[in-house]
Amino acid sequence: MQKENHAQGTAIAEGRPPIAGRLFSLDVFRGVTIAAMILVNDGGDWKSTYWPLKHAKWNGWTPTDLIFPFFLFIVGVSMVFSFSSRLERGRSRGEIMKHVLRRGAILFALGIFVNGFPTHFDPRTLRIEGVLQRIALCYVISAVLFLWLGTRGRIAAIFGCLVGYWILMRYFPVPGFGVPTHDIRLLDINRNLAAWLDRKLLYRHLFNGSNDPEGVLSTIPAVASTLAGVLTAEWLRSTRSLGRKAIGMTVCGVLSFVAGEVINLWFPINKNLWTSSFVLLTTGLGMIFLALCYWLFDIVKAGRRFTTPIFVFGLNPIAAYVFSEALASGLDAIRLNSATYGNISLHEWIYHALFVQVASPANASLLYALAYVLVCWATMWILYRKGIFLKV
Predict the structure, then answer these.
(1) Over residues 307-325, mean pLDDT
(2) Which of 31, 120, 229, 237 is the most exposed place for a label (fewest CB within 10 A)?
């Protein structure tokens, strides 16, 4: 991993974008997304957590389901600004692609590390897919499409991903089960094409045993989420006025959201399967949120000096995520023999001894999650103050 200099921190303190050519609003969006990701991943007790901090059980969506697609959308936006800057400095597409492949490989490896840490590195059962792995795959595929296709080609790729995935999941027979809507329910939890393919390719290496929320086939529409960010960045880099850019993002966001809700009638919104309707809905909301940040921080330029806490996460997103996941796994792995609670993990002991004593179960779970975000933030703050910004 690379360490960047302290110039970014200085720029933020002065109310300027961290790096010339980057969007202040995008770094704010990224920081909020990472903080939200840590918040929803690390509650005190999943059963007691408020519903907005839980994933939808299957079809439908909650605010929590927006976080991962928001991050993929941000990856697409960031990619355009980064690659365009390098191309303008004379870097070739081949050189950029070498960096992309290296970065993708590191992200994938970090994801496997996160899945196994600290005691689950058995190669026979180690989970292969995961959040960082999906980011790596979408990043590499989207980079290829950005570097070697024009805007029309990228639009066609998005269309192909969404329509092609719908055709596969709706009409393709699932071996051993039959045709969806005829022999089996559409998007049946274990009897759908994505779950069947995951079991064939990744048997014993799946998150749920029979399926995986970051499975192989659902990576196809996830690429569309990233490419939507690419198209958004191209719009932001255009010569149009700042106000027109914000309005354009908002309008497109609303249309995409509505399209997702309409298509939901035939192809349900489902985060676990990353359905085409889910892509449209989350992309629409991502555009709207980015447009709001863009208007507030890049056009009006209001409150920039108060965004430093957000940038602590926004400038070290991968480090923040890996640290949060490794710490959570470590707390779960440490076992204690408590006279009051019996044999429990350190995570459970902290939750019951410190938070359940002062609040209802739902509030205790929320307080634990907020405290956990604060611990992660404090760790990233140390890196921020030292001018250390880790990049793969």
Answers:
(1) 92
(2) 120
